[in-house]
Amino acid sequence: MSYAHLELVSYYLCPYVQRAAILLLEKNIPHQKTYIDLANKLEWFRQISPLGKVPLLKVDTEVLFESAVICEYLDEITPGSLHPLDPLEKAKHRTWIEFGSNILAVMAGFFNAPNEESFEQKRQELMEKFAWVERSLVTPYFAGESFSLVDAIYAPIFSYFDAFDAIADFGIFTDTPKVRIWRQALKERPSIQSAFAEDYTHQLLTLLKQRTSYLSMLVLSNPTV
Ligand SMILES: N[C@@H](CCC(=O)N[C@@H](CS)C(=O)NCC(=O)O)C(=O)O
User: What band does 223 get if pLDDT is binned at 50, 70 and 90?
Assistant: First the structure.
């Protein structure tokens, strides 16, 4: 199969970038990766990124942005769609992809909460979100035995929780046994294992230590992390 020249413009710890990285590996698509420093956005990046965000996918001379769109494109240019064929089922999968982005936004609040009260509020919100996911999950993957796009979207969410688990048990998945099974199945998937560097959790914890949030205070006061 021949493809256009694909270049994923990335940032090392970005969960949205990781979605596209998983798709590229899952579907065995030749590509190049370019890492940028989001704290120091270079002019070439500003010129091609309408939102100033990663990921971007350069497709020959064209540029795509927004991770969910990039993932759908990568799925469509390769055989064997990771979306259901039935339009209603496909639409349902897309709604859960959107929900995954919503979870990431709450996670950013959890990561950056300035005090215990707002941290607890975000923790509760995350538990509510995963209770919704629990009701729609089949397992071992989102829709059962077949890996789908929704799986690629949620894997980076769970990778962030690997870092949070190293700090303490925040009990977010205590009441969602199916989500726990799903998380484990994703962790064992080769494309997902290859998408994350071995020191991903360590890097994430290092980033967290540089913040001034309630969670970073918890990391700094935990001698085992
Ligand atoms: N909705 C976007 C979100 C991407 C996003 O928020 N990327 C972050 C890094 S994880 C970013 O580039 N932030 C840079 C900035 O906001 O200046 C997507 O799904 O691609």
Answer: confident
Please provide the DSSP assignment of 70-88 as one string.
HHHHHHHTSSS-SS-SSHH
Q: Is any ligand 1 atom within 6 A of the Cβ of residue 63?
A: no
125 lines ligand 1 (CB under 6 A): no
CB atoms within 10 A of CB 34: 13
Q: Kindly give the distance from the C-alpha atom of residue 1 to the centroid of ligand 1, in angstroms, as a whole number.
A: 31
- Phi first, then psi: what are they for 31, rounded to 5°? -160, 170
pTM score, whole prediction: 0.96
Domains and CATH numbers, the chain: 6-76 (3.40.30.10), 87-220 (1.20.1050.10)
Show Cβ contacts of residue 101 under 8 Å, excluding neighbours closer than 6 positions: 68, 153
Strand order in the sheet with 62-65: 32-35, 6-10, 56-59, 62-65
- Tell me the two tokens of residue 139: 């397992």
Q: Is the CB of 67 under 6 A from ligand 1?
A: yes
> How many Å lie between the centroid of ligand 1 and the Cα of residue 95?
19
| pLDDT single digits (tens) 25-75 | 999 999 999 999 999 999 999 999 999 999 999 999 999 999 999 999 999
Cα 35 to averaged position of ligand 1 atoms, centre (Å): 14
User: Would you state the structure tokens that stand for residue 54, as one six-digit string?
Assistant: 């990663």
E strand map for the chain: 6-10, 32-35, 56-59, 62-65
C-beta of residue 172 within 8 angstroms of C-beta of residue 123? yes
